[in-house]
UniProtKB/TrEMBL annotation:
Organism lineage: Bacteria, Pseudomonadati, Pseudomonadota, Betaproteobacteria, Burkholderiales
Signal peptide: 1-26
Entry keyword Signal: yes
UniProt entry keywords in alphabetical sequence: Signal
Protein name per Swiss-Prot or TrEMBL: Uncharacterized protein
Species per Swiss-Prot/TrEMBL record: Solimicrobium silvestre
Amino acid sequence: MSYTFRALSILAASLVASLLMNVARAEQLGEHPVLPTECQIALRIVTSPEYLQKNHSKIPELKNLDEAGMVTAMTNSLMESIKNAPDQEQFCATKIRQNLAYSSAYHFPKQCVDFLPLLKKSFEDRVAFKTDRSDSAQQKMNNAIVEMLVLDETDPAKLVQRCDVGIQVMQVNLNDKHLREKYPLPAACEVFFADMEKAMILPSQFETIQRQRVIFSIENKDTPERLDEICDEISK
């Protein structure tokens, strides 16, 4: 893997739209085995009152059942699908994406509710030159929401912090020629970012690096030694 690709991959993992914490311990559901976090979320969505109300006439297994019966039926159906899935986390993440419209099944903190429209605009701006910009932006948005749902399940305080930082970052002019002075980084990071900036060709790529600078600076303003460790690692 090339230096640039590897570095971008690591950077992307720390962006607000890359909040996913892969596997976390979830609570037991009756006698069912412990599920990946994504599956806990998917199960909550498909057994929510809104989902059941809108789908009870469309899903044969739900007809003529009361609410408790529908919850049981949907739980058993999803659990069977999860058991047979070759990649349970990916299967459940896809199930979540397919049902994000049932937003009453999840409740983000206010900071994240305020951050979501800013994030969506950012995605739209970044793909504005593409012919399939609408679908591309929505796909990125859906992925980000799934990541946020997982983080909300595993570390709610961290999600609030990420959304707070995200709001601050979205308010920054990334083309400000004094950005480096306003958001300084430790020496190891400055060297890394300078090398990365030279490798960027498209304006959107350069903005991604600048955005990451701001995120690094805000998130780690009280722990510069942590930034040294991060930049040393991704420079290897």
